[in-house]
Amino acid sequence: MKIIGHEKEKEIFGRVLKENRLHHAYILSGREGTGKKLFAKALAKAVLCENGAFLTDCKCRQCVLADSGAHPDIHIIEESPLKIDKAREISADAFMTPLTARKKAYVIDSADTFGQEAANALLKTLEEPPADTYFFLITSRYPQVLHTIRSRCISIGFGLLSDDEVCEVVSSNSDKTDDEIKAAVAISSGSAGYALYMLENMEKQPTFGKTLNPVELFFEIESLDDKEKVRAYCASLYGYLLEKYKRTGNETLLDFSNYLLDILKRLEYNVSLDIFRLDLYIKTIEVLSEKS
Ligand SMILES: [Zn+2]
């Protein structure tokens, strides 16, 4: 299992595992598509490994089972939102003896979607879990995780991937051309998952290719009511601009694509979406209505 990037987190957990100081519950938080779930699975595997291997090759029975994706003592829960019945089931199951390993691990995705009831069903188990049972919760919206859950877990924040790291992940998971990959990496803002999403969706965006209709464009941009939509939109626009630049050699298009990269970076901070959309609209009209 190869985890790209996150050297600091690897070091933290490597040390904790080696010194046998692993806490029983963690929340791994950070932007979507940066490899948190993969990391949590690697941790679950390390917890069960008979040789204490973490991110290194091991052929012990537990690791072989874990690599097959069917280890009966590694539970991956991806239900979103987590329903109360499932939360109760996890809590009850946690107290059963492991089936083949000496320990058990739970990887629970979307910790920010736990409602009050589901959270309540998990609280006691998170607080006083049975010995040798470990929980790795995952979220890309840490502030939305209920306080009661947060207070029972150690939080580890995962940073963004570098462009090289995103490129490494994307290249091994996509059959797109180098140019397309390069464009997706450039607008990924450190999320490999996002770059992959963009590669899959680059051709699906409608408006840019057509004759520009300012009213249509206005409503299209107006409908981008959250940052993810804005990112996706800018990303496909970016892909379109580069493509058009290659055909026409028009430098304005290249400038605009660089401008898009800049504003995508600004989006990481707290900019007003209204101002952002207005900027984007004006600039898009200005550039795309030019004859090129
Ligand atoms: Zn092993």
From TrEMBL:
GO annotation terms (biological process): DNA-templated DNA replication
InterPro entries in alphabetical order: DNA_Rep/Repair_Clamp_Loader (IPR050238), P-loop_NTPase (IPR027417)
Domain of life: Bacteria
Gene3D superfamilies linked to this entry: P-loop containing nucleotide triphosphate hydrolases (3.40.50.300)
Protein name, UniProt field: DNA polymerase-3 subunit delta
Species of the source: Seleniivibrio woodruffii
